[in-house]
Specification:
Chain B: Residues 10-121 form the STAS domain. The complex is a heterodimer of chains A (167) and B (126). By secondary structure, chain A is α/β, with parallel strands linked by helices. Chain A contains six helices and five strands; from the N terminus they run H-E-E-H-E-H-E-H-E-H-H. Chain A folds into two domains: 1-37; 42-152, Transcription Regulator spoIIAA (2-Layer Sandwich). Chain A has a five-stranded mixed β-sheet with strand order 1-2-3-4-5, with helices on both faces. Chain A is elongated and about 90 Å long. Chain B has 126 residues and is α/β, with parallel strands linked by helices. In chain B, strand 2, helix 1 (31-47) and strand 3 form a beta-alpha-beta unit. The chains are: A alpha/beta (167), B alpha/beta (126).
Chain lengths: 167, 126
């Protein structure tokens, strides 16, 4: 009787451990996927790339962002890189530091970096925390940043007559 | 001090392309070579009509604080002699390492590659 109970207990333990392992594996895999999926580098225009950042920016993620951005700058031969932080819920001194590091690295590669999409609340937090983003070029929205990059490259976007009459 | 290391040339070649000096760094740069290079560049700028210096570091795997300082010194020396210095061809891994070390080389103008660097110099020159 005792032997049977022991056997059953051991079996239950094994089953539970297997389930836990599987769960941990799943979580790890999803974390990896999140890292990869959440940081796409988009080519906005010839010579302009953008990274829309979504979610909290921690050290691991900012490392991935920096690496993929620099790779994209080399691949696309980009002169301008836009970091859009519209989807970043909070900016503390650590996140600001990550941003500044990314901007500095992009500059070393010969690309100018623009940070866009700083929401009013975040702007207030940054000022209240006394973080100096003076060395970083900022624009209110992604479109403003793109407009800046285009005008710096001498590209002009205008409405044609055909487009206006179609409306 | 000026002892050449085996397998490494004792001197970094400085090429003249019109009124631009082109320096291509390969591998490691030793103390003696760095000093020699600084001297070469400065005397070349002083004796000929050079308006720009392009330093290509695409063949460099690692930039430490020493090389960072040498590059900054070359840039400011050239600046004193009215020549602009552009650092070209930094690899992504090198850029990340430099930033992690806190060496952002604020005084240096950078470009993606030598082509872009030349473009930058001619554009601003005209």
């Amino acid at each position: 009787m005792l032997a049977l109970t022991l056997l059953l207990c051991t079996l239950r333990l094994v089953v539970m451990e297997t389930a836990l392992d599987a769960n941990a594996e799943l979580i790890e895999r999803q974390r990896q996927q999140l890292l990869e999926v959440a940081t796409p580098v988009i080519k906005l225009w010839e010579g302009t790339v953008a990274v829309p950042l979504i979610g909290t920016l921690d050290s691991a993620r900012s490392q991935v962002v920096m690496e993929s951005l620099l790779e994209a700058i080399v691949d696309q031969r980009a002169r301008y890189a836009i970091l859009d932080i519209t989807g970043v819920p909070t900016v503390d001194s650590l996140v600001a530091q990550h941003l500044m590091k990314t901007v500095a690295a992009a500059r070393l590669m010969g690309a100018e970096c623009i940070v866009s999409g700083i929401r009013p609340a975040i702007a207030q937090t940054i000022v209240q925390l006394g973080i100096d983003l003076g060395t970083v070029l900022t624009r209110a929205s992604l479109s403003d940043a793109l407009a800046y990059a285009l005008s710096k490259q001498g590209i002009e976007v205008s409405r044609t007559d055909a487009g206006a009459s179609a409306r | 001090m000026n002892q050449p290391h085996p397998g490494h040339p004792a001197q970094v070649p400085v090429l003249a392309l019109g009124d631009v000096l082109l320096v291509s760094l390969q591998g490691e740069l030793h103390d003696g070579m760095a000093e020699q290079l600084q001297h070469d560049i400065t005397s070349r700028i002083a004796t000929s009509r050079v308006t720009g210096v392009v330093i290509d570091i695409s063949g460099v795997d690692m930039v430490d604080s020493f090389l960072g300082r040498v590059l900054a010194e070359i840039a400011s020396t050239a600046g004193l002699l009215a020549a602009r210095t552009v650092l070209a061809g930094m690899r992504p891994a090198v850029a990340i390492t430099l930033v992690e070390l806190g060496l952002t080389l604020p005084g240096l103008v950078t470009a993606l590659d030598v082509d872009r660097a030349m473009e930058l110099l001619t554009q601003r020159g005209s």
